[in-house]
Write a structure and sequence with these properties.
Length: 80
């Protein structure tokens, strides 16, 4: 489905509903007949697939918390 910018502004809620109810897979918005953007549903990734996705890709150094007091002092304006 393709709509022009004016129609998209006027019927935005209706277009969103079409996507939500899966009556449309995507909606292309055009300016002067030229496609500019596409409205698509957000992919709903289950939490179980998000948790741990970066496991093993980052190793926390042993001294990670070494500067906490200094950083806290700088953020609160306290002297070191």
């Amino acid at each position: 489905m393709q709509v022009n910018v004016f129609e998209a502004k006027t019927d935005f809620s209706k277009l969103i509903r079409l996507i939500e109810t899966k009556r449309e897979e995507s909606i292309t918005v055009a300016r002067n007949g030229k496609p500019v953007v596409r409205i698509v549903p957000v992919e709903n990734i289950p939490v179980s697939k998000r948790i741990g996705v970066a496991k093993g890709k980052f190793i926390v150094p042993d001294d990670f918390d070494a500067d906490n007091e200094e950083i806290a002092a700088q953020l609160t304006g306290d002297s070191l």
